[in-house]
C-alpha cells in the first residue's frame, strides 16, 4: 500500500492511473479502523480498480471539543488493517494539507440539517460537507463508499454531490455489527466494561421497537424505547425517531406502503452512540 500525506502528490498518481483507464474507489474515514471500515474497502475493491482510503480526523465536524480531543487514534493498527485488506493507497494528511486556509464555506442541506444529527450537533454536517467536498475534489473518485451506520450523513453527502455537480457516485454500504448486535464504531473502544454491556441493549431495543411500531404504532414504540432507557443506569436518550427512509421526514404514523427507518442517538456514560434499523 502506498501512503501519501500530500494531496498534490496523490493527485499526480491518480491522474496517471486515470489515463490508463483505471477506476478509483474512495473510502473516507477518521481512522481507529474496525471491520465496518474494512467492509467499505472490500466493497470498493469489488467495484473499482484502485481503492483509496483517507484517514483524517476532521476538526470542522466536531461540535464538541472534548469528543475531538478524545477521538481514538490508532495509525499503526490502521495501516496494518488496510494493508491486509488490500487497500491500494492511503491518504493520511496533516490539517494544513486539507485546509491550507480556514474553510468558511456554508452549505445548505435544508431540512436534512435541521433534524436528528443536524439538530443535536450544530455545524456537524457543514463540517462534513467541507471535508468531503475537498476530498472528492482532490481525489475525483468514480465511486465513494459510505456506511449506512451514518444514515443521515449518506443523504447529506448525496445532496452535497448534487449541489456541487460532482461526478462521483455515492454508494451506501450495510452496517457491520459486533456479535451482540452493537453497531461497530470507533467510539466503542471508549466504553468501559459496564457501559459496553449496557450498549448491547441498543440493537435489542431497536429491533423490538420496530416490531412494536408495526403492531401498535410509532407512539407506542417511543414509549417502549423511553422505558428501556430509563432502566439502564448509564444511558441517556438524545433522540429516537421513525423516518421516511428516503427523505428522513419524521413519521408519526407507520404505513407498510412507506419505506421507513428508525434512528437513535444515546449517551452511554460520556460516549455518544448512534444506530439505525430499517423497519420494512
Ligand atoms: P468514521 O471513521 O466513523 O468517520 O467512518 C468512516 C466511514 O465508515 C463512514 O462512511 C461510516 O459510516 C463508515 N462506518 C462506520 N462504522 C461502520 C459500520 N459499523 N459499518 C459500516 N460502515 C461503517
Mind explaining what this structure looks like?
The protein is α/β, with parallel strands linked by helices and 280 residues long. The protein folds into 2 domains: 2-173, Rossmann fold, CATH 3.40.50.620; 186-274, 2-Layer Sandwich (Pantoate--beta-alanine Ligase, Chain: A,domain 2), CATH 3.30.1300.10. Helices cover 42% and strands 20% of the residues. The chain contains 11 helices and 9 strands. It has a 6-stranded parallel β-sheet, with helices on both faces. Strand 5, helix 8 (151-164) and strand 6 form a beta-alpha-beta unit. Helix 7 (124-139) packs across helix 8 and helix 10 (201-216) runs antiparallel to helix 11 (218-230). The longest helix is centred in the middle third of the chain and has 16 residues, at 124-139. Adenosine monophosphate (AMP) binds at residues 29-30, 36-37, 39-40, 146-147, 149-150, 173, 175-176, 183-186.
Please write the CATH class name of the largest domain.
Answer: Alpha Beta
Instruction: Provide the spatial order of strands within the biggest beta sheet.
Output: 1-4-3-2-5-6
Helix share, percent: 40-55%
Number of domains: 2
CATH architecture of the largest domain: 3-Layer(aba) Sandwich
Oligomer: single chain
Separation of the first and last Cα atoms: 40 Å
What would you call the structural class?
A: alpha/beta
Approximately what portion of the residues adopt beta-strand conformation? Answer: 15-25%
Task: Give the helices and strands as they follow along the chain.
Answer: EHEHEHHEHHHEHEHHHEEE
- Provide a count of the helices: 11
Bound molecules: adenosine monophosphate
The CATH superfamily of the largest domain turns out to be HUPs
* Mass-distribution shape: globular
Sheet with most strands? 6 strands, parallel
Q: In total, how many beta strands? A: 9
Rg measurement, Å? 19 Å
Q: CATH fold name of the largest domain, please?
A: Rossmann fold
Runs with pLDDT <50, length 5+?
Answer: none
Amino acid at each position: 500500500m502506498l501512503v501519501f500525506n500530500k494531496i498534490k502528490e496523490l493527485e499526480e498518481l491518480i491522474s496517471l492511473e486515470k489515463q490508463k483507464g483505471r477506476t478509483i474507489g474512495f473510502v473516507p474515514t477518521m481512522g481507529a479502523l474496525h471491520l465496518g471500515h474494512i467492509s467499505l474497502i472490500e466493497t470498493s475493491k469489488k467495484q473499482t480498480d484502485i481503492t483509496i482510503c483517507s484517514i483524517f480526523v476532521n476538526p470542522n465536524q466536531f461540535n464538541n471539543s472534548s469528543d475531538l480531543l478524545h477521538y481514538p487514534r490508532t495509525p499503526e493498527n490502521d495501516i496494518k488493517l488496510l494493508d491486509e485488506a488490500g487497500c491500494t493507497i492511503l491518504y493520511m494528511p496533516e490539517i494544513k494539507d486539507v485546509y491550507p486556509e480556514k474553510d468558511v464555506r456554508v452549505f445548505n442541506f435544508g431540512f436534512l440539517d435541521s433534524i436528528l444529527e443536524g439538530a443535536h450537533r450544530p455545524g456537524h454536517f457543514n463540517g462534513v460537507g467541507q471535508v468531503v467536498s475537498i476530498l472528492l475534489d482532490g481525489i475525483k473518485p468514480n465511486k465513494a463508499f459510505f456506511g449506512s451506520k451514518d444514515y443521515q450523513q449518506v443523504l447529506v453527502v448525496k445532496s452535497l454531490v448534487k449541489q456541487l455537480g460532482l461526478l462521483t457516485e455515492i454508494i451506501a454500504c450495510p452496517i457491520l455489527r459486533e456479535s451482540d448486535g452493537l453497531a461497530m464504531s470507533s467510539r466503542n473502544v471508549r466504553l468501559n466494561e459496564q457501559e459496553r454491556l449496557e450498549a448491547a441493549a441498543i440493537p435489542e431495543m431497536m429491533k423490538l421497537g420496530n416490531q412494536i411500531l408495526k403492531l401498535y404504532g410509532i407512539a407506542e414504540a417511543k414509549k417502549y424505547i423511553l422505558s428501556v432507557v430509563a432502566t439502564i443506569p448509564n444511558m441517556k436518550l438524545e433522540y429516537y425517531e421513525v423516518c421516511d427512509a428516503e427523505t428522513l421526514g419524521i413519521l408519526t404514523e407507520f404505513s407498510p406502503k412507506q419505506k421507513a427507518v428508525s434512528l437513535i442517538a444515546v449517551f452511554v456514560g460520556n460516549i455518544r452512540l448512534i444506530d439505525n434499523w430499517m423497519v420494512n
